[in-house]
Amino acid sequence: MLLTVDHVTRYRYDHPVRGVAQSHRLTPSIFDGQRVLSWSVMVSDATKGAQFRDGAGDALQSWTVKGPVSVVEVRVRGTVETHDLAGVLRGHRESVPPDAYLTDTPATAADLALRDLSAAAKGTEGPLAAAHALAGAVADAIVYRPGVTEARTTAAEALALGEGVCQDHAHALIAVARAAGLPARYVSGYLFADQEGAAYEAAHAWAEVYVAGLGWVGFDPANRCCPDARYIRLGSGFDAQDAAPIRGVARGPGHEALEVSVTVTETAAQAQSQQ
Amino acid sequence: MTTYFNEMYQASSSGKSVRPPYARLEDWMKSMPAELRHMKQAEAEALFRRIGITFAVYGEGGDPDRLIPFDMFPRVFTSSEWSRLERGIKQRARALNAFLVDVYGRGEIIRAGRIPSKLVYQNAAYEKAVAGFRPPKGVYSHIVGIDLVRTGPDDFFVLEDNCRTPSGVSYMLENREIMMRMFPDLFRENRIQPVEQYPELLRRTFASVAPDKCDGEPTVVILTPGHFNSAYYEHSFLADLMGVELVEGQDLFVEGGFVWMRTTEGPRRVDVIYRRIDDAFIDPLCFRPDSMLGVPGLMDVYRSGGVTICSAPGAGVADDKAVYTFVPEMIRFYLGEEPILQNVPTWQCGKSDDLKYVLENLAELVVKEVHGSGGYGMLVGPKSTKDEVEAFRARIIADPGNYIAQPTLALSTTPTFVAEGIAPRHVDLRPYCLVGERIELVPGGLTRVALTEGSLVVNSSQGGGVKDTWVLAE
Amino acid sequence: MLSRTADNLFWIARYMERAETAARLLEVGSRIALLPSAAGYRNEWDSLLQASGNADSFARKYGEPVQRNIESFLFFDRDNANSVASCITTARENARIVRTALTAQVWDALNSAFQELRHLERTPRSELELSRLTEWTMRHSAMVRGAIDATLLRNDGWDFLNLGYHLERADNTARLMDVKYYVLLPKVDFVGSGYDNYQWTTMLRAMGAHRAFHWAYGGEVTAAKIAHFLILNPQSPRSLITCVAGLSDHLDRLAKAYGACTPAQEAARAMREGIETLTVEGIFDEGLHEFLSRFIGVNADMGALVRNTYLDGDR
Question: What is the reported pTM?
Answer without folding.
Answer: 0.90
